Amino acid sequence: MARLRRIKKRIRRHVRTAQAEVRSIISTDEDSNVEITPDFFKQSIPRIQNETDIACDELEGAAKLWIGKDYTNFIVKDFTHLNMPFQDSIDRNTTPRMPWHDVSCVVIGDAARDVARHFIERWNHTKFSKAKFKDRYPWLIPKTYRKDLTTTNVDGKPMDQIPAYLTRVHRVNCQTIRSVGSWSIGIRQTEASIVDAYIEVINQAEHYIYIENQFFISQTKTHLESTDLVKNRIAEALYRRILRAFRNGHTFRVFILIPLLPAFEGEVGTSSGTAIQQIMHYNYSTIVKGYDSLLAKLSLEIDDPSQYIGFYSLRNHTKLNGRLVTELIYIHSKILIADDKISIIGSANINDRSMLGYRDSEVCVIIEDQEYDFYFMNEKPYKSGKFSGSLRRMLMREHLGIYKENKEDMLKMTDLVNDPISDQFWNEIWNARAKENTEIYEQVFPVMPTDDVQKLSDINTYLGREKLYKTDETKAEEMLSSIKGHLVLLPLQFLAEEIQIIYSAQDRFIPQIIWT
């Protein structure tokens, strides 16, 4: 007990010291004349000039592109000891870093003001509920509405004083949408405008829907029962839209990209991989597993749903200390693009936590183009939005490996990417490249997940197979040189024969709703 009291006393002393240091940087006295600006922080907070400024052994040795915990692989090891940011969490000599793919955007004008007001509302509600009488957390007051933002003048500044990126903006209609409720922002009526926007855009789409998201957990049922755990109906909207296109004889494509595995620490098929298996269970239940899954319902109406919808992911490879290695690219984006004319970009995952409003708090923007270029859609001339169309083309070129450095491929493929729903692009380019890349990876590496593993008992057998990266490195490198881009197929038959999830003892007490 005496030792515990000494530890508590030492902690309190450290807390008081830290608070005093913060107060010395930012004064909260009423009569203080210090103006808090970015320049103030640059002058007040010591900056790290070089490695010798940090008394940390982890920075010694060879130069590092990602320092300390910036070099991470969440499936191998989640973050620990965050108070030691320069300490490695994984062995960078043997474990490849997990790359991320993300999409964000900058908005100016009315939409930016609405994003700021959303932040102010959240801040003030949190202060009211948790720090009402703590003066160091100020109440935030929104600025007045202004109408003087034009294409030649941003916030009243001459053009030569405006950052270059703000002069290359696209003129669009932009609306801020949110998932907020009583706990997050203090409103009585829950706002779920993000899921409303998703469903409306899907219903109104005429040619294609392109989705990148961290999760795909949704409901396909028209009528929900009280026992249905998943509530949001984005998958049902996709089902109805595809079915309408099929019955009307229209060409309609849905591109859905999600990570090969959720970014949770653990191994599939073991008690350490409960979180991974739970998320995958709900992802696959939405996509293909069970009678109420999206593909199962479509298969009852359409002979070949793969002509309307496809599920994909991203993977990369390199050499690490002379060894061939591969790792999934973790898709962290939360975007939807429809018809090259409308985009939704923000923080909302496709699951109940992000979409229902009364659970996690999220914010997005829905963007409708007002300026257009002329391209093709299903081999016919088409007005493509300058923002949404260019974003979609950029993402597809990236995933297909169509880079400016490869001029021959660039010239050959660009015209095909311009028309995303033509049979040639859908079958001979997008799906063909995803399939080819997938097959090469599975011949060279023991990749997980894979369609070759349909039961948990198959995992060790599959991982024990001899693969080219060990048996014939020269041939493996030759095959890997044929991979273009990062696009691969999502293995829809992975663990298809498994029903039960292996739980650790403590995970049995976690409510299922936490995963949805």
From TrEMBL:
PANTHER family per UniProt: PHOSPHOLIPASE, PHOSPHOLIPASE D
Name under which the protein is recorded: phospholipase D
Keyword Cell cycle appears in the UniProt entry: no
Taxonomic superkingdom: Eukaryota
Keywords on record: Hydrolase, Lipid degradation, Lipid metabolism, Repeat
Keyword Transferase: no
Catalytic activity: a 1,2-diacyl-sn-glycero-3-phosphocholine + H2O = a 1,2-diacyl-sn-glycero-3-phosphate + choline + H(+)
Lineage: Eukaryota, Metazoa, Ecdysozoa, Arthropoda, Chelicerata
Pfam families: PLDc_2
GO biological process: phospholipid catabolic process; regulation of vesicle-mediated transport
Organism annotation: Dermatophagoides farinae
Enzyme Commission identifier(s): 3.1.4.4
Molecular functions per Gene Ontology: phospholipase D activity
InterPro entries: PLD-like_dom, PLipase_D/transphosphatidylase, PLipase_D_fam
Gene3D superfamilies: Endonuclease Chain A
PLD phosphodiesterase domain location: 327-354
